[in-house]
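Memo to structure team: turn this sequence into structure tokens by end of day. - J.P.
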Amino acid sequence: MLDRVLQWLADLGIAIGVPWALAALLVLPVVWWLRRKVAVQAMPFAALDIVTQAAPRPSRVRRWLMRLRLVGLAGCVLALAHPYKRGGERRETRDGIDIMLAFDISSSMLAEDFQPQNRLEVARAQVKDFVRLRVSDRIGLVSFAGEALTQVPLTSNHDLVLAAIEGLQPGQLDDGTAIGTALATASNRLRSSSGSSKVLVLLTDGVNNRGQVDPRTAARAAAAFGIRVYAIGVGTEGMAPVPVGRGLFGLRYETQRVEIDDALLTEVARATGGRYFRAKDAAGLERVTREIDRLERTPTLARRSLPRSEWYVLPASIALLALLLEAWVLLRRGPIP
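Reply from structure team:
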């Protein structure tokens, strides 16, 4: 019988956390029946004058108290059984694509032309904001200077990506700017992706001067894999102060010419169907990342797990109310005959 009840509830989408507790509900009708039987059997032995003198009101009160007690016990049993409504799933449309970030960590990223911060600090902050916007995407990270290194492969764990971005520093790789190697390394992570769209965001502040891979060749390979490249040139024009060491009174600076190969980066982006952006200050870099976020939105169908609804609170509240009401009546009226 209990199995049938559980199956009936399951058909309604209701589950019972502690099924055996429901068996205790069968005891309550038995208690009610025994109570009435004892009362009936006691009547022949009662003195007639006592029966006739008995007022009906206390008898009704006593019956209602018994009912309140049974309701309270039933509520306790149902709460103990822990009923809940299964959560299920809901289909919804999300914007999910695969994105690899190629982040320049050459020493020139320490140039302080994005006052009051240097290029690296501003770029880290803006790229982290970009990652937070892409809640439904898989994202990976490649750092590069004179060589390239995969810091994080494609993942849905954005906290891992954010932590890796925060840890980027010049000096972790041989110095230089190997744009072609960075493109090839990031493209290699994307080429076997099954995502509906594959995007490579390249952020650099220099000219390709290291590595064995020509950026144009890497761009053509990326295009063949269906990868769009969005290139971002970070830096002002003219001269910029760059720290070159420490002296007696702190950091020593050297003014260096800002050299960003806009023509090459434009060619690389266009070859893949992407775009090139130049960010000359912090606000400009923020506009660029927002624009890339706007451009790359591909709807995908995803399933979302819905939380289950806990129903034990309702019977527990009814039980508490019934038992409190019974206690209030007893305290107010005293012993009930």
